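Whiteboard transcription, Tuesday session. T.W. wrote the structure tokens on the left side:
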């Protein structure tokens, strides 16, 4: 069963799906999810590996000159998606 409900406040969707094969591995489940998204939403994904420039952040000869932030209402935490 697949139930798709659009969230009224954003363009996100809740997708509930049940795999026919209960013994499917995590990798198999990912492939089934990709197929579901391609079928339902015509999602197309392109992945590639590329060499890109990298910058190293290193301390200056005199050492690090930053101080710890003072405690306040904002902790500076923000979500980062994996990958």
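and on the right, the sequence the group agreed on:
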């Amino acid at each position: 069963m697949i139930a798709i409900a659009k969230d009224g406040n954003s363009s996100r969707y809740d997708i509930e799906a049940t795999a026919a094969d209960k013994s499917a591995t995590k990798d198999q489940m990912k492939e089934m999810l990709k197929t579901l998204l391609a079928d339902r939403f015509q999602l197309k994904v392109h992945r590639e590996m590329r060499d890109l420039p990298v910058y190293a952040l290193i301390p200056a000869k005199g050492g690090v000159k930053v101080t710890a932030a003072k405690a306040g209402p904002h902790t500076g935490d923000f979500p980062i998606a994996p990958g």
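Someone added at the bottom: The chain has one helix and two strands.
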